[in-house]
Specification:
The complex is a heterodimer. Chain A is α/β, with parallel strands linked by helices. Helix content of chain A is 52%, strand content 12%. Chain A has an eight-stranded parallel β-sheet with strand order 6-5-7-4-8-13-3-14, sandwiched between helices. In chain A, a hairpin with a 2-residue loop joins β1 and β2 (8-11). In chain A, α23 runs parallel beside α30. The relative contact order of chain A is 0.10. By secondary structure, chain B is mainly alpha-helical. Chain B has helices at 46-54, 65-68, 86-101, 112-131, 135-148, 150-187, 262-269, 271-275, 280-292, 299-303, 309-321, 324-331; strands at 34-37, 43-45, 78-79, 210-211, 231-232. Classes of the chains: A alpha/beta, B mainly alpha. The interface between A and B is large, with 34 and 38 residues. Chain B: GO terms for molecular function: zinc ion binding. Chain B: Pfam families: MAT1, zf-C3HC4_5. Chain B: One of its GO terms (cellular component) is transcription factor TFIIH holo complex. Chain B: Residues 142-190 form a coiled coil.
């Protein structure tokens, strides 16, 4: 259908639209016009991707700037889904408009997924594919070939040079599969086609890492212009992605390999000196002049890139003592030897980068300056030496990256040396963790460079935590309720067992027999009444194993077996996928099964249990992180000191986002239904930290339940949901559907809002009056919340309340005025 | 000239280390410790070190060039090894020696390019010594430079030590403060109203030399290092003066020990006043200062710019403050 938001014509590829989709689009448009960042939470399964794409494409096509869209998602399957969605949208647009728009949409993924080379594509590991591809496509290979030398190269890649560089693939949207097929037909490399076409695309869809990981972003995303619209979908874990992309772990083994790499480099330098002295001399000359590597043409096949460096540093020349190749190799060797001596220590060390550098200088006379240039110098050297077997140098590269990061950032990083793997271990196996504590470092360039960054997910509550942690300001943060024709999911908090004993996975009572029995009982009761599949989430593998063995001892498992099949997730990916497959078969066959998994495991992130695959989800215990981990402790301290986020606040936020993620697994659409059980005493107080669409659906009557009460409610719910939806309900609710609107409905809503705006006049926001309930909801949450939630709300006041409520803004104005006068 | 201890580039792992002299191994004797000779970098166990140095023997390793030359190592020349790789160990020792001599600082150089050239030159010299190419020539250059630049070497070494000490103290301070904050956060868990102790993150510029005049780059007395600046040691930091150099002379009166006053007699005899630490002398001083203040000030003179600068700035601030309307206007 086609409708207008203000003056923007939007083509939506479905005949009906959900109210929350419409609101989402309105808010997106506002953000794009205001030019800023926003955080939006939209219930899972309500068509987030399609509303996002149709609004932004409409926006692109309507306004002359044609701002590019960069859509980042988490997994390969999500990328493919988004591409298919985009393709369908563009098809619909061309049908409606009657013309095919000049439009390009491409997805990018790793070489492994996009390779066509007959032997390379058969390699199993991604790193090997990358390395082999590079050895066939590097710039100097081409040069050599032109000189007439006999070198192996990739025909698919070479064919690209025969095409026009700005028109490697025809306009249109290509899914990854489609691109592969096109590449096969035209004998051209899909990976490089996509990468080279990047700057000519209207929509780019790829993984987070292409923007966040500075090592990749430098290469892939450098040429994107400032007015791009960046969207991070499924972004509830974005802070962890940021941190991981800048953290480095070094082991004794990797240091040994790095030493070997350094020795190899030395040998190569010797070889080159005797055969091709000129090249080294050229490189040296360039470094002396302080020139950046000018040959941009080669940037594509550069295998290593620099970690996030401040711009001023990039303009500076490389320090004199590592200008010469042999000096640099000696420098690297000294640094690695130093790290080795550090590894010999038999107690835990926590150190800030400055004190690490001071000690380093004492022992080896390595100064901060050359250390900062380490990664860049290594890249330059590798390029000069024309190395092909690059995977051998990966550990060396890691060390160099570590050196650069440690010398660049004084705060936000911490070195933790753990000599033993666990507390009990007696044989040392030292690991040097160089951990990033500040998630904002990796994402900062993104916020600085792009004017609109949209962070969105199904579960991203509490919204104000993200701007705080990632250190940016939003123009809009919004959470949408889920509009439903009838109650189709039942969230409950169970705090007591049927014997009235409190249940919790808290450390003190988690292995208490009564608690374990009550959990078992809960599962047994739900196994009896739930049709089809049940998914159970535990806080950790350890606890899951412990509780299952105790259930087995108590004979609870034998009871459950009478009703459902039991399957368990393990850390092993293959075992888990087998379990999942069996689970699906069992659900399809009608008996149903129970899948026991872990809240931070693979299953909780990205595997959907729609319809009969998940009718009940039970969260046994609040999924708090293991707080004894030194890295987590350091991060908590950093958050407290830098962003004023209290330890407990962060931990409960983190636990709740994982719990919400687990709950969201079973409800994947409006025609789906399910029961959500949070079984822990501690959930009771954290209710307001759940996403709004879940929290809104949970009335006070559904909290603090005992097992029996919960089972009774679930029975009633299942019985009512089993009835067909009465036809009359739609007519009763005043002609327009409650959960979805046709075009007429939408237009009448729009007219209604417009007329209200006319009356209201001064507020200038159409939704304000339309959603009085929303405001109340937020306020209520403030009121009932425990201490820290109130504080967070105060922090978000300037953005959200200000945006939402004209009246408040006015009141504040008066206050300020009054204050001024009094001071005068 | 290959040294036997360094043939493989690095020594065997510690699991089964064998002393080449007494053939004792760590496998049999767990606490066997090794030391290296700082001349030839041969590695023998501690017991052998004691034996050899007490009887004035040469290095016992076969093929040792130092032993061939008849060099007898002293006890002090044996020490515990820091790095696993003996080549690195030796390189670092050489580096230490050279760095102590060629210790120019970046701010001494006329341009970044000159500084970089110096760094490369130094690296070159070190590598010469490490790889034993042109040792004689390099040593000669070094000693020549050392003689010619004795003063600057000393000064720079002092600066280096200073900076290191300052860094150390700052680190400990920061650590203490972090500890304090941690404790405070734990104690006041509910209402953390604790005052943030902002770490003293001032840059350590103290002690850096000042540039006298820019005559263009010069080279050092021995002619080895080029592109230097002429620098002068910094003047010692002045004591902080809260009155910004304002004279506190009492031109118009002298302060006596005591003044008769009706109002104060009672207070003077009251022990409670004294116990509180009230200083009558200070009170007299201030009263008199106030009474005579302004006697030597001529506003006309100050307006024409002849008054002391400190007071003029002060006057402007005071004048601005006396106009309440204007300041408040600026807020809007």
């Amino acid at each position: 259908m086609k409708f207008y938001i203000d003056d923007l014509p939007v083509l939506f590829p479905y005949p009906r639209i959900y109210p929350e989709q419409y609101d989402y689009m309105c808010d997106l448009k506002k953000t794009l016009e205001a030019g800023g960042h926003c955080v939006l939470e939209m219930p899972s399964g309500t068509g987030k991707t399609v509303s996002l794409l149709s609004l932004i494409v409409a926006y692109q096509q309507h306004y002359p700037e044609k701002r590019k869209l960069i859509y980042c998602s988490r997994t390969m399957s999500e990328i493919e889904k988004a591409l298919a969605e985009l393709k369908a949208l563009m098809k619909y647009r061309s049908e409606q408009l009657g013309i095919v728009e000049e439009f390009r949409g491409l997805g990018l993924t790793s070489r492994k997924n996009l390779c066509l080379h007959p032997s390379v594509k058969r390699e199993k590991s991604g790193a090997v594919v990358d390395a082999r591809c590079r050895s066939l496509t590097a710039g100097f290979i081409k040069e050599k070939k032109e000189r007439g030398e006999d070198v192996e190269s990739c025909i698919y890649h070479d064919n690209l040079d025969l095409l026009e560089p700005h028109n490697l693939v025809p306009p249109g949207v290509f899914t990854l599969d489609g691109l592969l097929r096109y590449g096969e037909q035209h004998k051209q490399c899909p990976y490089f086609s996509a990468r080279r076409m990047m700057s000519f695309c209207n929509v780019i869809i790829y993984s987070y890492h292409y923007l966040l990981d500075p090592k990749i972003a430098e290469r892939v995303s450098k040429e994107l212009s400032k007015d791009c619209i960046v969207v991070f979908d499924e972004a509830h874990n974005i802070d962890n992605v940021c941190i991981e992309s800048l953290s480095i772990d070094l082991t004794e083994d990797s240091l040994r390999k790095a030493t070997r790499g350094a020795h190899n480099l030395e040998r190569k330098i010797e070889e080159m000196k005797s055969s091709d002295e000129e090249k080294l001399q050229n490189e040296y000359q360039k470094l002396v002049e302080g020139l950046r590597q000018a040959d941009e043409a080669r940037a594509e096949d550069a295998f290593m890139a620099n970690p996030a460096l401040p711009d001023d540093l990039l303009k500076e020349a490389v320090p004199g003592n590592i200008r010469r190749a042999e000096h640099f190799v000696a420098f690297l060797k000294r640094f690695i030897e130093y790290l080795k001596t550090r590894m010999k220590v038999l107690y835990v060390i926590q150190e800030t980068p400055p004190s690490f550098l001071a000690h380093l200088k004492d022992l080896t006379f390595i100064e901060r300056k050359p250390l900062r240039f380490c990664a860049e110098r290594l890249t330059s050297l590798v390029r000069t030496l024309e190395l092909t077997n690059i995977e051998d140098y990966q550990p060396l590269q890691e060390v160099a990256t570590f050196a650069t990061l440690a010398a660049t950032y004084d705060t936000g990083f911490l070195l933790i040396l753990e000599p033993y793997e666990s507390e009990q271990a007696t044989v040392p196996n030292p690991i040097l963790h160089f951990t990033c504590l500040d998630a904002s470092i990796a994402i900062k360039p993104v916020f600085e460079r792009f004017s609109s960054v949209i962070i969105t997910s199904g579960t991203i509550s509490p919204l104000e935590m993200y701007p705080k942690m990632l250190n940016f300001s939003t123009v809009l943060q919004e959470s949408y309720p889920m509009s439903l024709e009838r109650r189709s999911f039942l969230p409950m908090i169970v705090t007591r067992g049927s014997d009235q004993q409190t249940i919790s996975s808290g450390f003190q009572i988690r292995s208490d027999l009564g608690v374990v029995r009550n959990y078992g009982n809960l599962l047994f009761e739900f196994a009896k009444i739930t049709p089809d599949g049940i998914v159970v989430f535990f806080p950790s593998y350890l606890y899951m194993e412990q509780i299952i063995s105790m259930w087995q001892g108590a004979g609870i498992l034998d009871q459950i077996w009478n009703y459902k099949l039991l399957l368990v997730e393990t850390p092993d990916a293959q075992e888990t996928s087998l379990a999942l497959e069996t689970y699906r078969t069992a659900c399809d066959s009608g008996k149903g099964a129970i899948l026991l998994c872990v809240a931070r495991g693979k299953v909780s992130e990205g595997i959907d249990f729609d319809h009969h695959f998940g009718r009940t989800v039970i969260c046994i215990g609040a999924p708090f992180q293991y707080t004894e981990s030194r890295i987590l402790k350091a991060r908590l301290e950093f958050l407290r000191e830098t962003y004023r986020i209290k330890e407990t606040d962060f931990l409960s936020f983190d636990a709740m986002r994982h719990a919400a993620q687990c709950l969201g697994r079973v409800l994947r659409g409006k025609d789906d239904y399910g029961i959500m059980v949070l079984a822990d005493r501690r959930f009771q107080r954290k209710r307001n930290q759940l996403p709004r669409w879940i929290a809104d659906a949970m009335t006070d009557a559904e909290t603090g339940l005992s097992t029996d009460m919960a089972v009774g409610m679930a029975k009633k719910f299942l019985r009512s949901i089993a009835q067909p939806l009465p036809k009359t309900s739609r007519e009763m609710s005043g002609g327009k559907g409650k959960d979805s609107w046709s075009l007429q409905d939408l237009e009448s809503v729009q007219a209604e809002r417009r007329s209200r705006r006319g009356e209201g006049g001064h507020t200038g926001r159409d939704e304000d009056e339309d959603r009085p309930h929303d405001m109340q909801g937020v306020n209520n949450k403030n009121g009932t919340g425990n201490g820290h939630v109130g504080e967070i709300d105060r922090a978000m006041e300037p953005t959200s309340n200000y945006m939402r409520n004209g009246l408040d803004e006015f009141d504040e104005g008066i206050d300020d005025d009054e204050l001024m006068r009094m001071e005068a | 000239m290959v040294m036997s201890g360094m043939q493989n580039g690095h020594i065997a792992s510690e699991a089964d280390d064998i002393c080449p002299v007494c053939k004792n191994s760590t496998y049999l004797q767990k606490n066997l410790r090794f030391k290296i000779n700082t001349k030839c970098y041969h590695r023998i166990c501690e017991g052998c070190v004691d034996r050899i140095t007490s009887t004035q023997k040469k290095c016992p390793i076969a093929g040792c060039t130092f032993a061939a030359r008849g060099v007898i190592p002293r006890r002090g020349e044996y020490r515990v090894q820091t790095f696993e790789d003996l080549a690195i160990e030796r390189e670092v020792d050489i580096r230490k020696r050279v760095m102590a001599i060629l210790n120019r600082r970046e701010e001494e150089f006329y341009s970044k390019r000159a500084w970089d050239d110096f760094l490369e030159q130094r690296e070159e010299l070190i590598m010469n010594l490490v790889l034993k190419t042109d040792v004689k020539k390099t040593e000669a250059t070094l000693s020549k430079y050392k003689e010619a630049n004795a003063d600057s070497i000393k000064a720079n070494a002092a600066l280096e030590r200073n900076a290191a000490a300052q860094f150390e103290s700052r680190q400990t301070l920061q650590k203490e403060q972090a500890n304090l904050r941690r404790q405070a956060a734990q104690q006041t868990y509910e209402d953390d109203r604790f005052h943030t102790l902002t770490a003293g993150s001032r840059d350590v510029k103290a002690g850096a030399m000042e540039v006298i005049h820019d005559d263009g780059p010069v080279s050092d007395p021995s002619g080895l290092v080029k592109g230097l600046r002429k620098l002068r040691p910094p003047s010692p930091e002045k004591v902080y003066d809260p009155f910004m150099g304002m004279a506190t002379t009492r031109d118009y009166y002298g302060l006596q020990a005591d003044y008769p006053s009706m109002r104060l007699t009672k207070a003077k005899n009251d022990t409670r006043t004294r116990a509180g630490g009230f200083d009558f002398q200070a009170y007299y001083d201030e009263s008199l200062l106030r009474a005579f203040a302004g006697l030597g000030c001529f506003i006309d003179k100050e307006k024409t710019g002849q008054g002391p600068p400190a007071t003029r700035e002060l006057a402007t601030v005071v004048a601005a403050e006396s106009l309440p309307g204007r300041i408040n206007d600026e807020v809007f």
